[in-house]
Structures
1.
Amino acid sequence: MTNIDLNRYRSVLEAKQAELVRLLRNRDGIAIERCPDALDEVQYATERELAIRNLDRESSLLRNVRAAFCRIEDGSFGVCLHCEEDISPKRLAAVPSTAFCIVCQEFADRSQCDGAETLDELLIAAA
Ligand SMILES: [Zn+2]
């Protein structure tokens, strides 16, 4: 991987990180709404659940992006964390924050567990 490649991935990741931080800061969707109408209550609960699911997804994406920055710094970017083979440029172009080659991704999905980082810690670190 050349420095030109790395710089390109770095700017893609920076844009992604900025976008995720902006999305995560916009947490109005989770505010607990009080409404006297039972049907509206259901509607609000559904929307709230959706907002929480999106936050979960976005915060785990942000974690991946931050981990990718660490790999750029330590020179391991573009190398699969599991089998240590190069990740294909095609896959990196599609998912620059990925830490695994396509073969290992399924394994990673199965064994992935959430770390100790909370959303707030992520937001502080990303600011
Ligand atoms: Zn692999």
2.
Amino acid sequence: MPYEQRLLRVNLSRRTAVVETIPPALCELFVGGRGMGAALLYSEQRPSVDPLGEENRLIFMAGPLAGTQAQSVSRWMVCTKSPLTNGYARSVAGADFGAWLRFAGYDSIIVEGKSASPVYLHITPEACKFFDAGDLWGKDSLRTQELLNERHGGKTRVACIGPGGERLVRYAAIVSGRRTASRCGVGAVMGSKNLKALAITTERNVRVFDPVGFKKVAAEQGRLFRASGQFKEHKEWGTTATQNVTNSIGIFPTRNFRYGQLKNCEKIYGEEYRKLRTGDFGCYNCSARCGKAHHVKTGPYAGAYSEGPEYESIWVFTGPIDSTSIEASIRADQLCDDLGIDTISAGNSIALAYELYEHGIIDSKDTDGMELVYGDHETMVKLITKIGLREGFGSILGEGVVRASRIIGRGAQAYAIHAKGMELPAYEPRGAKSHGFNYATSNIGASHCYGYAAQEVFGVPLPRPINRFDEAKNADIVIGNQDGTATGEVGIICAFSKGWGWYPTNFGSLLAAATGVERFADPAFLQRLGERILNIERAFNVREGFGRKDDRLPTRLLSEPLHTLGAPGEGEMVREMEEFLDRYYELRGWTADGAPTPEKLAELGLAELTKDLWAKR
Ligand code: SF4
């Protein structure tokens, strides 16, 4: 039996839902998850569509291992064209929704068109029904899920938008449980379609090709997890103590990427968050349960409760505005989840505003009367609500740093910290150069999750030890990190689990046992797979007009020296941007403008799929 996947194609304009089989040839080339999402988006969508227009497709993907007894493999993702970058978007999330998608019998849901009025989809293995969502519109993400669970029962899982998505905040998220597909503005695409939620009601039911073989490998995976010191560490802390490391080595971005260390950072170390921890939570079938819930019981933020913040949100609600208020970060994280907006982009947009205010480029007349002073976390919290509801100055910040700085003018663009229009995550590129070059060359904009350089933060010597201040000589490391991430995301595995002893050997074996395709266990196939995905994603962007000019880091990082409080890296800048790109493109087999050549595409089996790319050039 050939390996097939099933997709549900929903057209909101026509109110139709049709089940289709994905061609086996495509399944064998891309396996599923991220690879399939990118391939479907490339092949189905014509270039230059408006990301917030009805032609843009919104593709939900689960991986072929989701819902199985294997651990940490049930994440889900969304692929679309981003309203933040105008390029390729992939945004990943956890919780149960990926498993539920497969329990309902689907590997993918493609949403097309636009509903004339707010709507939600109720999906079961038997049907997909359209329901009016007028009463849900305006509700936050938590309340929306509660209401849909009341309506459709406890066997229901929901992915929805909050007010941020409805109001087209360009970095709006899609929320399921308290996990979010938050980067790239995928929630704004959903909002532009008047689609409030997908609710799936189903029994747990996933079949694999070889149940006996699969069970054996899954048991081995569990044994390796339990034996792993890194697994135990992650289970205890999640990412709530990563700032202890990044601040000590001088890569904790502070005051809109001016400094690499935060004064008094020990006040926000993991041990301090631990004091407010009230529980653990996890994604479907993952014994790490690395989500850490925090509850503020006293002070001005009493009552604040968040199933987070994780490291990125801890950082973005402290360092960028020079605050050490843990309580404010918990409240800010909670608000972003409720409103359905990305914490990283929201916090960076606020950081931009604080710096502009300090330089006198904006004043209280621009900010609805608010004074933006470093250390003032209460104003940051107010701004988050204004962003999510697109009120006043918050509406400008809801455009993201590139558009907001353009709207403000007066030289504000120089302070917009982004790559391809997406705001930077919590690793200072002048002290972690491979992180920076990953941001620059990533096809989705500045994302640490696109090719995380564990070599730089945790000293992981794979495939070789590196110096984090080296630039062009580490192009191979950036490529390896990006391709390796893409391979795992066909799974869709959790990136944290890669260090727990089971990857890639058991991963390949699980894929083969689940699908019946033996070559999915072949290390050479898996390595090529990541490269293939990076190339199809790059082809999408090239077709949209992206090139070398877009593989950039913010000017600040190339022209202003980094300042630390004593950690290594004082005076560092990014000096070899062009040399890095030359080397990166050469190793990838791309043109000097950063485009995959016809030869490279043919080598990867992509000639037919991408035949339009070079035909038009
Ligand atoms: S390690 Fe954490 S984020 Fe990853 S799958 Fe497990 S619970 Fe989810």
